[in-house]
Amino acid sequence: MRRGILLFTIFFLSGCVSLVGPNDYSVKVKKEVISEASKRRKLRKKETVSDSKLKADRKIGCKSTYKVWGKEYCVLKHSYGFEEIGIASWYGPNFHGKKTASGEVYNMYEMTAAHKSLPLGTYVKVINLENGKSVVVKINDRGPFVPGRIIDLSYAAAKKLGVVAKGTAKVKIVALGRKEDGHYTPENYERGSFYIQLGAFEKFENAEKLKNKFVKKGIKAKIIQAFGLFRVVVGPQLTYVKAMEERDRLRKIYPDAFVIRVN
């Protein structure tokens, strides 16, 4: 099935970010290689990103990075209850029996999925916002890489969600964490530095427009940059509880507001 790059994405992200500003500094980033076996698309190429120094205002928060079709992607350090809303697609027979980016063999009848940035091995709940159905899948591959998609489901997962016939559906992804002894184990995020995200954009001017709208309403919004996107946020708060209280207040004005953690 087709793949996607989500241009306007809603992330519940963790990791270090930098405030937008003139102070640039550099960090080293590790490599991640797209598995040769995960060439599920004709044009998908295995490519390694150099570990040369990269600007921290673009790379902080990435465990590693990789490139597909010349575009760079960030693999998150952790999921921390990551959330995302967008379009899901699915892939099936043409890739059945081939290896995925994790090294596991793709089985279209198992509950798995491909995602561009979540750590491999993360379990997520996928909710079909068009019919209310939901499933839990394991992220074991990378993709999708065609504009407009945020997750590629296995045939089995797509069937349970009612996506097979239509091909795509609007979904919400909620990270559950790693699976240990039959239980999902999320990372602890009760304390830290938390922001309430109001929007995320590839272009600074679009983020600035949204920020200015909130400022006119008396909301102290600002812009931070992380994972290659400009994010309009309010905060920070030092505890998750306080951040959730602030989120609930902001949702009266902006229902899509949610909490992200930065360290």
From TrEMBL:
The keyword Lyase appears for this protein: yes
Name the record gives this protein: Probable endolytic peptidoglycan transglycosylase RlpA
UniProt xrefs under PROSITE patterns: PROKAR_LIPOPROTEIN (PS51257), SPOR (PS51724)
InterPro entries xref list: RlpA (IPR034718), RlpA-like_DPBB (IPR009009), RlpA-like_sf (IPR036908), RplA (IPR012997), SPOR-like_dom (IPR007730), SPOR-like_sf (IPR036680)
Function statement: Lytic transglycosylase with a strong preference for naked glycan strands that lack stem peptides.
Annotated GO biological process: cell wall organization; peptidoglycan metabolic process
The EC number(s) this enzyme carries: 4.2.2.-
Broad class of where this protein is predominantly found: membrane
Keyword Metal-binding tagged: no
Membrane topology of this protein: Lipid-anchor
GO MF annotation list: lytic endotransglycosylase activity; peptidoglycan binding
GO CC term, one of those recorded: plasma membrane
Family indicated by similarity: Belongs to the RlpA family.
Highest taxon listed in the record's lineage: Bacteria
Organism: Desulfurobacterium atlanticum
UniProt entry keywords in alphabetical sequence: Cell membrane, Cell wall biogenesis/degradation, Lipoprotein, Lyase, Membrane, Palmitate, Signal
Subcellular location(s) per record: Cell membrane
Ranges where the SPOR domain occurs: 188-262
